[in-house]
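User: I'm putting together notes for a lab meeting next week and I want to include a structural view of one of the chains we've been expressing. I don't have a solved structure, so I'd like a prediction I can at least talk through. The sequence is below, exactly as it appears in our construct file.
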Amino acid sequence: MKPKPRAIDPEKKEGGAYFVTYLPIFLDYLAVEKGLAQNSLASYRIDLRHFGHWLNEQKMQLEDVARVHIVRYFQSLRTAGISARSVARALAAIRGMFRFLVAERHLKADPTENLENPKLWTTLPKSLQPEEVESLLRAPDRTTAEGLRDAAMLELLYATGLRVSELIKVRLDDLVMDAGFLRTMGKGSKERIVPFGDAARDAIIRYLEQGRGAFVKLPDPYLFLSQRGRPMTRQSFWMKVEKYARKAGIKSHISPHVLRHSFATHLLENGADLRSVQMMLGHSDISTTQIYTHVSRARLQKIYETYHPRA
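Assistant: Thanks for the context. Below is the predicted structure for the 311-residue chain, given as structure tokens.
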């Protein structure tokens, strides 16, 4: 005989406890009907108990759990440093239990239905806030040749969303300064045209007029040169980004790729269409670019919850 579940008291937020009430029933179903091994059952039990505790912390009733809450839970796991593999395993456990509860008519709806693969959540790119970008761009000392070069690199990177491998290979004749765009050769030897704004153009012009000459040893076609007069390397620029991030007071880990992510995220947040961002980033498949819409939605959700009086 199937154990009779206890009723939910609508005056008490006992979603987590209610969830755990069904846990033995679900585990019995997995053991008897599905034939899961003991190790798998133990993993399911741990993952589901964690979720039950989280529901208690959120003071949520199980029947009120929606898709957004499931996503928020898994994002909290990733923030806590849980591996992608563990997140995927937890989703399988939670999805299985919700399907079971709906099939057994304990719940009316399954909030995990049509939920994206957690791989999308685990690969959400890190991006900076606009004010952090501004602090980073102000960090180089523009009274020195090195500072002018580094400022121009940072400005151009954020203005175009180039990959760092593309940035260090920019040639002088790739730039069309009057029109404000450059040509770059991306993955698969595909050339694309990328625009840049006044701030990047001004930084490049100042570097060309006042800074680049200090690095030139022999005629060289590349825009950004090292102290030895050779093109800047990825590793050298990576170290410079980290140095300027510390100077700007940015405590989180940062890399050149973070500025590329920030470029895409800020464009979308300010109304750019996905196809245009795809072209500027040089993505061959728009599904690669769509990951930035998840970042944008996550930020919008956070802003809404922070500032809306009825959030």
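A couple of points you could mention at the meeting. The chain has 15 helices and three strands. The chain has two domains: 15-122, 130-307.

User: Perfect, that's what I needed.
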